[in-house]
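Archive entry. Fields below.
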Amino acid sequence: MIRADQANQHGILSFRTKLLLAMMLVVSALTGLGLYLAQRTVAANAERYLQQNFQSELSAVDKVLELRRAALAQRCRQLVSKPRIHAALEDNALDLLYPSAKDELRDLMEVGEPSSDQAGISLRARFYRFLDRSGGILPPPNQKDVGELSKRAESQLGFKKLPEIQQIGYISENTDATPEVVDEVVAVPIFSSETGELISTLVVGFKPFRFGNERVSGMRSGIWVDGHLHLPSPSQPVGTALASEITRAIMKSNDAQGNLRVSVDGAPQLLFYKRLNPHSLFSAAYEICVYPLADYMTRLRRLQWQISGGGALFLLAGFVASHLVAARFSVPVEKLEMDSATNRAERERAEAALVSASEELKRSSQYSADASHQLKSPVTILRTGIEMLLAREDFKPEIYEELSALLHQTHRLTGVIDDLLLLSRMDAGHLQIESAPVNLSQLVEEWLDDLSALPESPEVRIEKKLPPDLYVTGEKRYTSLIVQNLLENAWKYNRPGGQIRVVAFRLAEEVRLKIGNTGRPIVRNLQEHIFERFHHTSDASGHGLGLNLARELALLHRGDLKLVCSKDDWTEFELCLRGSSLAKNCANPPG
Amino acid sequence: MIFLAVPLRSQTAVEGRVQLLESHPVPVMAKRYEIVTTGGVLATEPPLAVVYLEGTFPKAAPRNPKQVAQKDLAFLPPLLPVQVGTRVEFPNLDDTYHSVFSYSPAKRFDLGRYRPNEKPIPSEVFDAPGLVTLRCDIHEHMRGLILVLNTPYFTVTDANGRFRLSGLPSGRYTLKAWIDSKTTREQPVELKKGATARVDFP
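PREDICTED_STRUCTURE:
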């Protein structure tokens, strides 16, 4: 039993653990999934936001650049349509070209240094050159007038073949004053107004467009041209590293624009590049935006931490909840388990008891039956012998007396054995009652007659109060046995000069028969045992089976027998039987 | 023509017809400016030609200046032949400024911007033979041509290409016809005193 309990305990424990584990697993999986999705979403959003920011910045840059370029191109076109320039080119007066242009470009060229706040949006040219028909530079008579340029920078202005449409380019220049300067160059073709031929190209150099330093926080923009990166303020090694990164990216993708992450000096940077002069015959130039990601990464990491913290809290809450739910779920199961265990134990116990009791019963009834039969034959032989002895006439009178007493005892013995036989049959469940209407009044009357006819009957007064033809349902043999039993007892245990009172009446469906007698009452502490088999009676005259048998029979008839009272010289029993319908309907019941 | 020709019949002269350029259907914009460029060739529109007698003549350039006016944003006449040494005045007959200049090798000059009815009338002496392209610095489309010739004998054909050049010295000469900036045709001509030679430029 203890082992079973332990097993049960173990089972419940494992059930709870399993439930808890499953729920924790689910909660963990959900939390993990949620975390993963949230992180991914956050990262994607942040990335998108950054991209959008850059794109909008870049498109703003684009718009400004476009406007500026349109303005520049417009000015350049105006220049190249100037009659003097055309005259110089068309009328073979190249010596007058630069002088004429000087006049015409006077308002375009910078005079002195532009003020710093205008530098960004200045439309003033820094230099200009004309190209001859073969794409080479028409040498200016005076460098000062046309904006000084290094040989290297000047060489970048030429073309192998004059371009037929306007070109935008960027050239990097090395001068002593500033190590790396980038110029935005607009090359405008000049067509002869006479021949329509491409006769020259005006190349005008401007300071490239510069925005304020801080647009997006920390973002720096610059220009990459021909393998050189021009950022406002990178330290030299960083600039070189960036330049090589960008060069690699641009060479690889060959896209007009793109972005990549680079790590410079261990600091992550987001890098955008966009071709400034698509389809240009000049060498490719890219607008570069470098955005240090440290801030962004920090923010992202903080956000991720927050999300993780939230997730952990959620997980914890989930664990607690799952624990509670598991406990809650397992309680009824546990109870069920316990109940079923208890029930099972009880049932097993009951079954075992039933089995043993039934075996006991079977055995005892078998024993009773066997014993009855075994006993009956010697008693019969004994009685026959005594009766034969009594039939002789050659004994002394006192021997006849003795023999009579012996005979009486054999009769008693037979009665006991009969009772035992009946009881054992009842115990074995073999006794079947064939119910029929029985005239109780008649039965009582007959037995009272028999009793009064007994020898040595004491002087008792019999008082009877019973309606005639009171019918009960039952088998006449056994009903009669009960009545006999009760009346015999009332007679037997009476005192001389006593009284027997028999009262019978009908109460609804029941018929009650009350039999009382005077005489010494049953000892109080024995009263409750008088219906037990072989109970100890105070005097030896009873064998302790009669009341038991009477009661069993009454019960078998769906009735009852009980002791109403037994005190002060009065003992009364009440027999309860089922009334028969014949009592009402049949005026003349059968015998 | 006939009326004119009768009193001049006694002079030494040459007449004929120049096969002019086809009248191109030119862009409307250019029509009013009269000097058109086609493939780098300057010509008048409608086509005209200058016929002149080449040679060395003692006759000096006329004292009186010739005129190329700027009227309706165009040079008028669009094509002016002059003898070397002739002064040409450029009166501004428009309501706007003009700025006549030329970068032509035959004559570089720049009159600068000047108002209408500028006095004295801006002028320039053309002292080297050749074709001078007149431009206006303000109105880039304006073109005028001055054909500076060594000879005093020249004329502009009519719209059909007919010409008559009279008062010429007798002798063998070369008669030239300037058709456009790239095309000058020539024919030998023998002029007899009092006679009118006939030369056609096919």
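CURATOR_NOTE: Residues 59 and 210 of chain A are 15 Å apart (CA to CA).
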